[in-house]
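USER:
Make up one protein:

ASSISTANT:
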Amino acid sequence: MLGITSFFFNLLRKILFLWVRTDVIGNDAKQLGLDPEKPVVYVLQHSSLSSRLVLEQECRLAGLPSSQAPLTLRDAVLSRSHFFLYEKRGQMFRRRHTPTITERLKQLVSAAQKDPGLDVQIVPVSLFWGRTPEKERSLFKLMLADTWSIAGRLRQFLTIVIHGRNTFIQFSKPISLRYIVDDTQDPQRANRKLARLLRVHFRRMRQAVVGPDLSHRRTLVSTLIRSPSVKDAIRETAKKENISPHKAKERARKYADEIASNVSIAAVRFLDIILTWVWNKIYNGVTINNIDAVKEAAKSSAVVYVPCHRSHIDYLLLSYVLYRNGLMVPHIAAGINLNMPVVGPILRRGGAFFMRRSFKNNKLYTAVFNEYMHSMFTRGHPVEYFVEGGRSRTGRTLQPKAGMLMMTVRSYLRNYKKPITFVPVYIGYEKILEARSYLGELRGKKKKDENIFGLFKSLRNLRNSFGRVSVNFGEPFALSDVLDKVQPHWRDQAYDQEPRPKWMPHMIDELAEMVATRINNAAALNPINIVATLLLATPKQAMDQKMLADHCDAVVSLLRMHPYSNEMSFPEGCGADWVKYTESMGLALRQHQKLGDIISLEGSSAILLTYYRNNILHFLALPALVASLFQNNSTMDRTKLVWLVSSIYPYIKSELFLRWHKDDVDPEIERWIETLCESNLLLKDKDNLYRPMAGSREFVLLNALAKTIIPTLERYYIAIAILRRHGKGAITANALEEQSTSMAERMSILYGLNAPEFFDKALFRNFINNLKSNEIIQVDEEGHIIYDEDLDNIAEDARLVLNAELRQSILQVAIETQPTQAPAA
């Protein structure tokens, strides 16, 4: 009889998979951590023949223990190696799936209690016929959606027909039955504990994969308009502008309709198909790192994804990666400029909600947007926004904007029952899609507005290859942890609809720095940014091929010996492979020469490669600072070296979002000194450190390291030179920023510095603000900068890094430039 049953079961399985197509995650014994010496039992949430057929098929394909095989326990034999958490209960035609402690579960617990040596690995398996939320506009879709509460065989058949080709299965890590049983001697309590643990697991999996229930969009818009904060803003707007409350209410409704996303799983599936084709056309693959930490966070928190912003592709790529890895696509904050005809509605259905660039002087819009964000967080929807505001044109992580972070914190203070977890994301491209337009903008061309014609024009890029993409997820962190650090007693305070406690600005600064720092922690080394870093460190942007390959290997070896963080990623291959790859991508030229081929940069390539070098500049900042102090010094006292690097560190940290606090950086500097000594890039004798012999391989490599950070130090010296040239109390911070930018641009032209960020006004502004925060300069009542001998000491220390010729050139340009500037008042 068993043979006949088995025959028909396998026949049905083969028939079912003529139609069904699955996307499976976790079906790897090593990944699951299965012990081959211990029995395995699978648990499904709902009892159905189709679920059993799919489970057995995936077990066979993955080489996992069969779910249909009998399981022998101490004094009992289970007919199958699986059980269901929910069983159908009730009268005929009214049977419903109900959480039940099944006989098979009881048998497992009983056997484990009788045999102390028995441990069964219970593997939860989540199965989704499609990934449709419970509430949809379409009655037909609602009827066929997988709600995990299938009423009958007809509906199950229709669900498989409609959704079967988009079936998602997730195998989760096993639960030890021994652990459950050893925790209590009462069999009934052990049964309840195991059942409760499994129910919580399946509920969290559903939250992570499908997301919270979606309300009808019109209902959501109406709910926003009825909220107390929006009602207050409507009344205030009507009074201020002398219009009727009805008109103000309709304006608020229009704002809400403009903002709100309209997530459609059908649209998400459509985009998944299209984007799979696009990525295969333009990329050589997408590498994903540390996704498991995100899956854990998504089970119990409202997740806020905070990626770096380098390209418009970021929006689509992150959603694609999440969806492909069994996570719900986030609701994405997009600029209103992307709400174009055709494109806007597609993005909105893919999860985008649109926001204006400025909320200034529009309290009604601000209230509606804040309430929309609050509804997203309290309902547990994943949200994504870019803290940098706009795309980085230089490849660096930009200074974070406070707006979206402020809204997130205020929403959480209003209702902190639902945890919020931030997930920093680094998206690294080997070749940026918008590279040429960025080059134009850096040369002064006006930024073009997005439009539908520009989109079609960009389709030409589908003919080109843009290398690999890395999507690295940083270490998630809870918003409550940051609040606890900044304001330990924040839960003891009462907050209104728009909380603005005095400690909020400091809290936002801490949060912004943590987000940017953890994005950088997860950066990816790739062949392009490694080669770019070394070629740009040479005077003529050219190097012997073998030497370049050797230096690439040496730099990566340094970072493997002393990794910047646990979240960073490394490329495969070796230096010779990376040089060839960069050449094949059209980013470097090879010149054949009798004594050996030369790799060089020409024209705009040198400027373009600064973008890729800047992606990883923070990885090398500390060793480069150490190396820079041996540019003009053959030997240095170790204690003085550490002191000098730690003195410069706060300014570099603020600019590159380095991970160590300024008070804790000395041990890290010491570790880097040891790493450089182990690699023979520095030599040591007791308390003295020496640079290698001039002309040696190590000497050249140490110089290359130093060259990566020296342009930054030159920029600092420019600002200090101008300030000292004017004298105490003679120039304002704004005037110093303007003059420093102009002088840096002039220096760039005169001395051929191919780094566009060298004269980036924002970087000078940040440096001046850091001089203030470190109390090197002060601003008097009239806005003029005053300083003491500390600034003179910094200028004096510059001679240890910058050579005399360069310092003299900067001072000379400062003298020449000053008369053309309007006097500071």
The first strand starts at residue 22 and ends at 25. The chain has 33 helices and 25 strands.
